[in-house]
Design brief:
The protein is an alpha/beta fold and 355 residues long. The protein has helices spanning 5-33, 36-41, 48-55, 59-71, 87-90, 103-106, 108-113, 116-125, 137-148, 153-157, 162-170, 183-191, 204-217, 232-235, 256-266, 293-309, 321-331; strands spanning 76-77, 83-84, 173-177, 196-201, 222-226, 241-247, 267-278, 336-342, 345-354.
């Protein structure tokens, strides 16, 4: 067997970069959740004691975290033992930087690590890990979508459907399928008080949170329903909605084709369906240069795919790809499918769909 020693050495270096990158993701998640990045962005160069004091955290843990951040070239450390978060880095790591705060994404790594043992059992025995085993997923997903979706609804997403925008102002009936914690619907209901909004989601935890936030905001034009969409192709209200949305929701459904058929059934004849989902090919070899390929396949394997399989579903997965998406949309009865990309969002495609 031919053995390219240089290729082998290069691969070992690639692995070490991956290990360091993975470790840095855990530390980045901690920096985000504890507010350390936000605190350091507002401080001049400071000692670990000063940083811990301002963040109201234990100094010993902060000092070790700073070691990881320094060796990872996220934080700068001077000879006098003072640490600084460069503004160029803070622009991607702080809440003030939203919707560009990439530290939000780092939270997925410890979250997925919690179910590693169960995922390994699924590799050996099949099946899946159900939604309830991901206690923080909806919280993290809400923060993530708050950046990629909610923060840019007015400026970037709604202009993709200008004909719908005018109707929203006058008053129409809107459905969000797989609404999660309801952040997108909450924003839409606030913007368009003349329209009525409904959100469906399987998760009781997410629906409870969504209802509470809607009640706190006094949004009387917004309701949520805990709903299993497995048979949505039969139970969807015929021609009941003028505008239907799904944001990163179709691929982890138990029966995605049934969901799409239910959307087609529920959509008024002159209605519009807006689907946001992962931008990728349905073929592995065409995703070699995908900017987030390993991350998204891992997220799919350890969440999106497995929660579907836990419901005896298809396990379509996050990387189902544009080809599969178009195939299922046409099987569901849609004929007009336009695909858009947005400059702020390199990870997703936006489908504007009509019957």
């Amino acid at each position: 067997m031919n053995f390219d020693r240089q290729k082998s050495e290069n691969f070992s270096e690639q692995l070490m970069e991956a290990f360091n990158g993975g470790a840095l993701c855990f530390m980045t998640s901690i920096g985000h959740r504890t507010g350390l990045f936000d605190v350091m962005a507002t401080m001049p160069p400071a000692t670990s004691k000063e940083i811990a004091g301002k963040a109201n955290l234990d100094e010993r843990y902060v000092r070790e975290w700073l070691g990881a951040m320094t060796s990872g070239k996220v934080v700068e450390c001077a000879m006098d033992g003072r640490y600084r978060l460069p503004p160029e880095h803070a622009a991607w790591l702080t809440r003030a930087a939203s919707p560009a705060n990439m530290a939000v994404l780092a939270q997925y790594f410890p979250l997925l690590g919690e179910v590693e043992e169960e995922i390994i059992q699924c590799f050996r025995q099949g099946g899946g890990v159900p939604y309830e085993r991901f206690p923080r997923f909806h919280e993290v997903m809400a923060e993530d979508s708050g950046q990629t979706i909610v923060a840019v609804l007015e400026e970037h997403i709604l202009p993709l459907v200008p004909h719908v925008l005018a109707r929203l102002k006058s008053g129409i009936h809107v459905l969000d399928v797989g609404c999660g914690s309801g952040r997108a619907l909450h924003r839409l209901a606030s913007l368009f008080p003349a329209s009525r909004f409904v959100g469906y989601d399987l998760s009781r935890e997410a629906i409870t949170r969504a209802r509470q936030e809607a009640a706190d905001a006094g949004l009387s034009n917004l309701t949520y329903e805990e709903k299993d969409l497995t048979t949505f192709h039969e139970t969807g209200l015929p021609a009941a909605f003028d505008f239907i949305t799904t944001f990163d929701a179709v691929h982890d459904q138990a029966q995605p084709l049934n969901v799409l058929k239910g959307i087609a059934r529920s959509l008024a004849p002159d209605g519009t369906y807006l689907m946001q989902d992962i931008r990728a090919s349905s073929h592995h070899h065409e995703n070699i240069d995908h900017p987030a390929g390993p991350f998204l396949y891992a997220l799919s394997c350890m969440h999106c795919m497995t929660v579907s399989l836990a419901q005896d579903g298809e396990g379509l997965g996050a990387m189902w790809g544009r080809q599969k998406a178009e195939e299922l949309l046409r099987q569901a009865g849609f004929r007009s499918i336009a695909i858009h990309q947005l400059a702020h969002d390199i990870h997703n495609d936006y489908y504007v769909i009509r019957k």
